[in-house]
Amino acid sequence: MNIDKITIRRASLDLITPFTTSFSTQTNRDFLIVEATSGTTTGYGECGAFAFPYYSEEYTSGCELVLIEHLVPLLVGTVIGHPREIRDIFAPIKRNTMAKSAVEGAIWDLWAKLEGVSLANAVGGTKSTVDVGLSVGIKESESELVDFVSAAVDEGFSRIKVKIKPGSDLSFLRAVRTEHPEVPLMADANSAYTLADTEHLRRLDELDLMMIEQPLAHDDIVDHRHLQQVLHTPICLDESIHSLADTRQAIELGSCRIINIKIGRVGGISEAKDIEQLCRNEGLDVWCGGMLESGIGRAHNLAIASLPGFTLPGDTAPSARYWKRDVITPEVTMDRGRIDVPQGPGIGFDIDAAQLEAITTSGRSFEADNR
User: Is 262 annotated in the active site?
Assistant: First the structure.
């Protein structure tokens, strides 16, 4: 597979509803799309980094620079036998996982299209549908949260994730649990607490939660071990897990009982597959988290979530939840809490070329003969 051309697009999409976490409120997604072309076939990948380095050290402008100066020059004009090779090619570049993932995702899509198979099939997926949950941002009041969750439950979402932070946690979750005693419910703290909050966090055990996601520091594994030892509620690690090595260390320490695998956070599909396999071997539940992606990123998430180790509903909600018009056709839709895994070649969706062009704010292409 000759990598004849790689294009980096910077794009902007307005969210239908503002999304609030413990670290920010987002009304717009400023993100990158990577296109990898071989002959007349193009694969698409998406960079999940936000415009600011609040979730992790990566951010859109930084990823764009790393792609332009370091990653794309390693690939354009080369011959790739299989997408697995990308990880080794990028190995000299430390971290920068979301930038790496954007290129690797485009190569996986390109390779699957050239092979005439779906991306899900290419990565070893076994499911034809995946369960889908909804991530709910922090609300101003308990009543607003309950109303929002009630509407989502009526839509049929398989699981509800509620973002929390100090001052917007126990009473909010308790209100939801009172109204919906049977709904699968989890909390996501995005690193908003410390071990000094242990007694407060232990009160979450009263609410029969599926898990609490990343309660402590974004780069911590050790303190999560101490917290998990005193919590009945399973801890799920997100921001702390950037690699297979991080996953192995967290499992050996007993720092969590569940892992959230985000393709971008771990550096791409190849690393995500290895993490899924390790967790499956060790008996840990796994699910696929989201980064407010466009349909391109959502398609990649659906493919990885089709692997057998993804045992819990993920965050890949329908396009219409976030965008007035997505960049893929047809858009991602849900039926009674499940989304069909695309079966067409590559990501299985067509690109809405007019919409992609409309939301592109800048772009740059690199070809084999003018690197």
Answer: yes
Q: Please state the CATH superfamily assignment of the domain spanning residues 5-116+352-367 in this structure.
A: Enolase-like, N-terminal domain (3.30.390.10)
Q: Indicate where the chain has its CATH 3.30.390.10 domain(s).
A: 5-116+352-367
33 CB-contact burial (10 Å; exposed 0-12 / middle 13-18 / buried 19+): buried
d(CA 339, CA 357): 27
Q: Which of 56, 42, 54 is nearest to 97 (CA)?
A: 56
Q: Which of 5, 113, 139, 163 is catalytic?
A: 163
Cβ(337)–Cβ(316) below 8 Å: no
Asked if residue 213 belongs to a known ligand binding site, the reply is yes
pTM over 0.90: yes
The vertex-261 CA angle with 256 and 155, nearest 5°, equals 100
- Identity of the residue numbered 48: G
163 as an active site residue: the answer is yes
Distance CA 30, CA 28 (A): 6
Q: How does pLDDT run across 177-196, given as a tens digit for each residue?
A: 999 999 999 999 999 999 99
Inform me whether the pLDDT recorded for 370 exceeds 80: no
Q: What is the pLDDT of residue 369?
A: 76
Confidence class for position 371, pLDDT limits 50, 70, 90: low
pLDDT-based confidence at residue 205 (cuts at 50, 70, 90): very high
Architecture of domain 121-350: Alpha-Beta Barrel (3.20)
Pinpoint the residues of the chain covered by CATH 3.20.20.120: 121-350
Of 346, 356, 363, which Cα lies nearest the Cα of 42?
346
Amino acid at 46: E
Q: Which amino acid is at 175?
A: A
14 belongs to an annotated ligand binding site:
no
Q: What are 310-356's pLDDT values in tens digits?
A: 999 999 999 999 999 999 999 999 999 999 999 999 999 999 999 99
Catalytic member of 5, 100, 161, 262: 262
Please indicate if the annotation marks 182 as binding a ligand: no
% of the chain at pLDDT higher than 90: 98
